[in-house]
Amino acid sequence: MSATDAEWSGPGTRTRGRKDHRWRRLLWSLIYPRAAERILPTVPGVFLIALCMGIGMAAYNTANNILFITLSLLLACLILSGVLSWLNFKGVTWRLVVAPPLRVGQSAAVALELRNAKRFLPTYGLWFDVRSSSEPKGARLMQRARLDPAGGDLRLDWVFRPGARGIESIELASAGSLFPFGFLKKNLGGHARREVIIWPAPVEYQRFSVPAWSRPQGGDRVARIGQSGDLLALRKYSPGDSHRLIHWKASARLLQLMVRQFAAESQEGFSLWLESDAEVWSRPEQFELLCSFAVTLAEDLFKAGRLSSVAINDEAAQPVRRVTDIEAFFDRVAVLKPITRALSTGKPGAPRRRNLLTFIPDGARGVIAHVDGNKAASA
Amino acid sequence: MSTAIKRPQLNADELHQLKWLLGSVLATLSAWTVFFMEIDSWVLPGLVTLAATLAIWRPAWPARVPRLVHVLAFPGIVGYVIFDWYMSREILPTFIRLDLLLILYRLIGFRRRRDDLQLIVLGLFMVVVAGVLTVSLAFAVQIVAFTACALGFLLTITLAETAGDPPAAAGGKGEPRWAAQVNWRDLLARIRAVTDWRVVVLGGGLFAGVVVLSGLLFLAIPRFELNNSLFIDRLINRQTRTGFSDEIKFGEVTEIQQDEGIALSVDVVDRTQVPSMPYWRMVVLDDYTRGGFRLSPELRSQLNRAASRTTRLRGTARFRRDTTDWTFYLEAGVSRYLPLMGNFNGLFFPEPQMVGLSDALRVVALRADPSKMTAYRVTGMEFSAVLPDADLALKRRAADPAALATGSALSLAEADRARLQAMATEITEGRRLTSPEFAVKASTWLGARHRYSLQSSLPAGAGDPVVRWLASDTPGHCELFAGSFVLLARQAGYAARLVTGFKGGTWNGYSNSYTVRNSDAHAWVELFDDQAGGWLRVDPTPGALTLDDGTGGDEGEAALQRIVDNSWSARLESLRIFWYRRIVNFDMNSQVELARTAKEAVEGTSRRMRDALEGFVASIKAWLARPWDSERIIGLGGLVAFAAAVIVAWRRLGRVWWQRWRSGHARTAGADPIRREAGRLLARLSLAGGGAVSSELRSELERLRYGPRSTWPHPQAVFRRVRVELRRSARK
Predict the structure, then answer these.
(1) In three state form, how does the secondary structure of B88-141 look?
(2) Which chain B residue is nearest to residue A184, measuring alpha carbons?
(3) Residues of B in contact with A140 (CB under 8 A)
(4) What's the pLDDT tens digit per position in B630-643?
(5) pLDDT tens digits along B503-528
(6) Contact residues, B window 8-37, toward A, CB-based 8 Å cutoff
(7) Cβ-based contacts of A142 with chain B (< 8 Å)
(8) Does any CB of chain A come closer than 8 Å to the CB of residue B223?
(9) Residue B544 CB partners (closer than 8 Å, separation 6+)
(10) Which 3 state secondary structure label does DSSP give B73?
(11) Is this complex scored with an ipTM above 0.85?
């Protein structure tokens, strides 16, 4: 099974079925199903059951076969309801698709993709309860359109707003349906869970007038991929590349299409060093502000092409050339926690770099960014 | 991603329209059950039908119903029900009319989900009550049609809800969007476009499965009988439609003969015991009043006093092993008197009945006219022409005045009595005849003076009407012949009484049962024969056998062949008998019997199979034990070689041909068996782990699964190698 297939879950996946074919577990699940996998009667269902009991009592009380027939027919209809409900779920698979980036306070789209592997039976009227660790109540996604057979697919969207940075767990709590007659509410466990990283929220900050922001010379030089400047490197052609970028000589030599990568205009870059000493950042909300500030500043500098490297605590500085580099930095900041350094180690000295961005608390709430020891911005 | 052509889908408005249509049909189906119940409520079903038709024709019309109607609906309905109950004093008909009113109200407003469900429950109530009250085969048809409609309705409700639109405005407040423009033809075309025939076939199959399953559940539901308590069939009063009551006027039995409907069906265990011309006695009328016969008040009160709640009655006939069991299914509305041919040993009901047995009359009567079909089983029933009454015979011999007066009272004016005496003397020629002799002579005398005709009338004039008729030569019907005979007999000094019931019937060749119709209604006479010690059946109607012993010259199979009915109506009638036998009359004993039969069938089948197998093994042993010669050895070798050749040919060629043929067929259907087999083996490989087969073999398998057909290696060879490797891997 491929990695992509493994993401799919639901009654239509094979592995789940195999696991559930342990008799003890199956029996126990029938006696005491999990909360998300119970079959509960609806109000009409309770009424129908009461009607069945009433007709049954009358049948036994009178030995009237007409009532026995009616009772049998009602029971058969209940069984038919169960069979149709099972057929409705059969062959249906689903998976959660989350499109990064996800940031605190910004709307994030989560898609639930449905697929029906049945040969000719469509699937109707499913619902899915999705929730995230920041929104435990979650939402109910309704399948309003028909899910066609033979591989037909549907996509249900859920928009939520992450509340905190870090690892967010998005879970399909249960899938259910009232199909076909609305007597029984059948729930299946969702068996789908995704963990995504929530980046810190962007914050507003104030820049101060320091020479580093506009220093024309000196400092680290940033070389990154761009559309102008010097030839930076060659790489393999990939669909979508402009034909004008093809390096024909190199392609002829290597027997495969190669394209040129140019360096963007080089500028003086900053090195960002983020320290998370628990002693310094003892207040959680101030620490959160630090993370948001650092990420916002790094993003702005990257967009301006002036971020040369990033470092967190004792790690070596990581150069930032591509988008993936800055995203990796954001991922690490998203899960950053205050650390306590051992006494013997002590606080390491600042890297010997120019344009070094560091952060210190500003009073009880604020955060100040320093460039080479000068106050450069505050949030 | 699906490659199939996208099938259109009904939108929310169309689903609501379909829901509306099905709801109207369901309401109509439910309301029509009233026609089976014979309840005095013909207006309301008509109104429901009208409202349903209007709802389909103009779905938006509930929006035009004034709001005041909805405001006044509840108090109006409650007021009507109270008034109805006050007037009729019958609970069940009142409830039924209430149900109809509620159904009607649900048709004049836009329904929400709750209202739709209420409509289904109201309809179910109607159908079940109709079934309980009538126990007719129509109930089976109706409940199946109702169930199909209700399930479709519920499915549409669920789909319409999941479609997401808000529910229709309730109570006619405003016109919902879906009702604004309804074109049923377009909707039908859309449904046709949406429908996949495979789904329809599956749905039909599932519904057939529901019917079969409900039948199995019906048979399997454990039965234990509780005490019968108040039930709905006792909440309704029903009058007998026919003339088989305590009192008849001349012409009433003849009126019954105009009705071709079925009155009685009889199951006989031993068909050879069926008499060729059975007389089904129901009512015995011993008292003559001017213009009619009646059951005397003493005997009537005696019969009523004898009534008790029971499931069995003990008769006066002795138990005999050679008699057969008779199961009667007496239709509703015929009579409270149960048809019997004579004395019996035992009479059994499937459920307790308020029933009485009159020893003097040898009749069995329920306390009230039954509102539904009455089933009962009779054992040891006698059907000879003489109904033994030893008690009365002994008393008459002892000159007991009460016994001598039995069946002899005659209150006539002197003039009538004189005219009657003259006729009696003419018949007996002044001699004292035995009862059989008098029966023959009187019947002959009557037949000579009067012709038989259903269209007869009593001659005008003064005096007793029967005496007037006797004195005339006017044609008459069976009641007049029988009534005249009774009067003549009593005047001549014989004890006689009038009996009404049925005569004859037809033998249903499909259900192997006796069918008696209302048109077989008849009246005859019982004349007490002191020598025989019982009541002698005499049928004075011309053309009838005067002193019939019930066999009519031929009996058993020959008699049945003469009256067998193989028409289409008999075919339909056999369904009704099946319904009565297997459904209505099904009880705990039947269930035990069914279980025993099933067990015996399984045991018998397994025994036969075991015997067949043992016989086969024995024949093989015997064949092997026979002396071997060259001819047998060559024959056996040839057989083995042929079998081996067939197996090899199949493995080499046949299977390949078969899969190719399937493959050719499957290409159009998208299910190539070779690709599927390759897919199955790949799945097994993935479970077995990566090292189960070589990468080369796996790539060949993947080519069979995914690659173009032109690049395929030999499929069977690859499959065989993979299977071998898989087995080897499993052993490791």
Answers:
(1) HCCHHHHHHHHHHHHHHHHHCCCCCHHHHHHHHHHHHHHHHHHHHHHCCHHHHH
(2) B158
(3) none
(4) 888 898 899 999 99
(5) 988 888 888 888 999 889 899 999 99
(6) 9
(7) 162, 164
(8) yes
(9) B503, B524
(10) helix
(11) no
